[in-house]
Amino acid sequence: MSSVTRHVLPNGMVVLLKEVRSAPIISWRVLYRVGSRNERTGITGISHWVEHMMFKGTDKFPPGALDKMIDRVGGSWNASTWLDATSYYETLPSQHVDLALEAEADRMVNAKFDPEEVESERTVIISERQGSENSPFFWLSEEVQAAAFRVHGYHHEIIGDMADLETMTRDDLYTHYRTHYAPNNAIAVAVGDFDTAEMLEKITALYGSIPAREPIQRFARPEPPQSGERRVIVERPSGSALIEIGYHAPAASDPDFFALDMVCSILAGADSPAGSSIDNKTSRLYKALVMKELAASVDGGMYATIDPFLLMFYMTVRPDVDPDAVLAAFDVEIERLRAGDVTEEELARVKKQNRALFAYGMERVTNQASMLATAEALGDHQWYEHYVDRLNAVTLEQVKAAADKYLRRQSRTVGLLIPSGADDDGAMMDDFDEEDAE
C-alpha cells in the first residue's frame, strides 16, 4: 500500500495525497468539518440542505454545466452529509482532474443560493423526508436516537426535523455556507494516478489564495451519562413489529472502539466501515433469533464518529411472536457475552471476516479517498491506514472487558414499533413498558 502524504496550506486547508497507479483514475474529495451534530434546534437538517444547494451552480459553472462536463469525460460526482461532516467528490480519468479541482475550488466560494432555488429545494427535501417516513424503521430509529441523546446534536436525524425544514430561510442556509465552507475547515484528498509534487502544486495554485475565515465556533454539547434504561414505543403502519436497541458506544478515537466493534461482529455479523458487508448467518443473534424463528431478520452495527455514538441492533419480529420473547432471547445473548462466554476461535473468525470486508471495500480509489478524509476528520488520517493492524491487535480479554463495560442495560435505549391496530387493547404496549427504568 502506498504511503499518504499530509500537507497544510497557509490558509489552513489540510491536503492528503496518495498515489495509486493501478488505473488511470483519480478521486478528488473535499470534506467540510460540519455535519448534523453541529446543528442546533431550529436549523436541524441545514448541513444536508446546503449540500443540495451546492449543486445549483455558480457564475463559472451554471446549473447543470458540471453534470454534462463530468459525464462527457466519463467521470462521476456526488456528495454526502453525515453526522460529523459534509463531503463532495469527483472520480474521473486522471487527465481530467483539473475539472474536479476547479469545480470544488469554485463551489467553496461562489455558490449562489438563489432564493427561488432555495424554495424549490425545500420541496425536494421535504419530499425526501416524507419518503424516508415510508419506512417504519425510520420512525423507530428517530425516536430511539432522540431518546438516547437529549443534549448532544446526535439526537436528530441528518435529514432534519420537519418543523425546521418548513421554516428555515435562505439567510440561514447562506450563513451556514459562509461560516463552514472555508479552507481552514476543509480536508482535501486526492487518491489515484498522479505525481504527488505536481498534484500539490495544482492544489496550491487553486486553493492557496482562498482566504481563511475566522476560527469556527461549532455547536457541540457533550451528552451527560445515561443513568438508566430508556424505552420508547412507536405505533405506525408496518407489516411486522420492530425492535431497535442502542447502547452508548465510544468515539472512534477511544482505545475501546475496536474491541467493541468485535463485540458487535460476534453478535450481529461483520460490517466494514468501507461500506461492504456479508451475510450474518454465523453471528450469535442470527442463530438465537432467526434460526429459532423468533425474528425474521436481525442486524447491527456501530459507526466511527467524532463523539461517542451508539452500538445499534435491529430486529424484525416474526408474525405471532411476542416482542418480549425476542427481547428476552436477545438479552440472553448479551448476558452470555458480558459474562465472558466467548472463544479465541470466535474472535479469529470475525477478525477474518472484517479484514476481508475492509479489503474489498478499499479496492476503489473513491472509497480510499472517502476513508482518508473521514479519518482526518476523526483526528488521525492514519486511522484507516492502520485499521487492520488495530483490528488484529484486539485481544480476547479486551473483547470481554468491552462487552461487560458497554452492554449494560443502564446505558441502552430500547425501542418497539407496534403495527397500527395490531393490539387495540394496548396489552403488548403495557407489557413492554412495565420495566422502564428511567
Describe the fold and architecture.
The protein is α+β, with helices and mostly antiparallel strands. It has 2 domains: 4-207, Metalloenzyme, LuxS/M16 peptidase-like (Cytochrome Bc1 Complex, Chain A, domain 1, 2-Layer Sandwich), CATH 3.30.830; 230-433, Cytochrome Bc1 Complex, Chain A, domain 1 (2-Layer Sandwich), CATH 3.30.830.10. The chain has 16 helices and 11 strands. The protein has helices at 46-53, 65-72, 97-110, 115-132, 136-148, 162-167, 170-180, 196-207, 257-268, 284-290, 323-338, 344-361, 365-378, 387-393, 396-406, 427-433; strands spanning 4-8, 14-19, 25-32, 76-81, 86-93, 186-192, 230-236, 242-248, 295-302, 310-317, 412-419. It has a 6-stranded mixed β-sheet with strand order 1-2-6-3-5-4, sandwiched between helices. A 5-stranded mixed β-sheet has the order 7-11-8-10-9, sandwiched between helices. A hairpin with a 4-residue loop joins strand 4 (76-81) and strand 5 (86-93).
Protein topology:
Blueprint: E1 4-8, E2 14-19, E3 25-32, H1 46-53, H2 65-72, E4 76-81, E5 86-93, H3 97-110, H4 115-132, H5 136-148, H6 162-167, H7 170-180, E6 186-192, H8 196-207, E7 230-236, E8 242-248, H9 257-268, H10 284-290, E9 295-302, E10 310-317, H11 323-338, H12 344-361, H13 365-378, H14 387-393, H15 396-406, E11 412-419, H16 427-433
Parallel strand pairs: 2-6, 7-11
Antiparallel strand pairs: 1-2, 3-5, 3-6, 4-5, 8-10, 8-11, 9-10
Short structural description:
With 438 residues, this protein is of the alpha+beta class. Helices cover 42% and strands 18% of the residues.
